[in-house]
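Practice problem 4.
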């Protein structure tokens, strides 16, 4: 459990403290996720709701791995991506999806820690493995839908830039651009809100433990 706590600290720094990920934090995050996935295969780790959330958090870095490997292939073999203009956008959307999944899962872990600290008995029926799996599944579905919308918007923009579009396509492009812009704004403000909530939760937990 100490290793899992260190992993959570690393992820909190990577996604909720740093304003943007860099090569060092991304590399350390990937190593931490790989190590965590190996640890969670051990029979010594009991199946708890927090463990389920951490497992989903570690698996989210698969998106980063796909993006990193793709960029390495493009750079190493000098692959031309002019014919597939959507490839860079897809890689960026995968990184965005990873960041959003990770922030939401980390916030769920923080909320569960708050419940364990202040309402251990009352919240026991909420802190179940079934609810944790359901929460992880809902988060993945929502972020996947978000990523799909961003990708459709990027594809429509690329196609409209390369060829003339019909009036129906113009309306679809306008709708997708508006929806994507609103979703990006919502994600931005939600990210700020999650940072504030997480700081408040751990502030309360820290002083509660200090008083004890």
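Answer key:
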């Amino acid at each position: 459990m100490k290793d899992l706590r260190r992993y959570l600290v690393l992820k909190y720094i990577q996604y909720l403290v740093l304003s943007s990920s860099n090569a060092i934090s991304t590399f350390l995050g990937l190593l931490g996720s790989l190590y965590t996935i190996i640890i969670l295969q051990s029979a010594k780790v009991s199946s708890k709701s927090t463990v389920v959330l951490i497992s989903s958090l570690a698996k989210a870095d698969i998106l980063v791995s796909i993006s990193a490997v793709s960029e390495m292939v493009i750079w190493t073999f000098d692959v031309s991506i002019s014919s597939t203009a959507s490839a860079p956008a897809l890689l960026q959307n995968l990184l965005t999806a990873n960041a959003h999944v990770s922030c939401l899962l980390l916030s769920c872990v923080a909320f569960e820690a708050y419940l364990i600290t202040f309402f251990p008995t009352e919240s026991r029926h909420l802190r179940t493995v079934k609810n944790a799996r359901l929460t992880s599944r809902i988060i993945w579905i929502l972020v996947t839908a978000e990523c799909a919308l961003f990708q459709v918007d990027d594809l429509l923009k690329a196609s409209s830039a390369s060829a003339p579009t019909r009036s129906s396509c113009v309306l679809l492009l306008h709708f997708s651009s508006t929806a994507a812009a609103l979703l990006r704004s919502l994600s931005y403000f939600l990210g700020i809100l999650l940072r504030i909530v997480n700081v408040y939760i751990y502030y309360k937990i820290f002083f509660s433990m200090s008083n004890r």
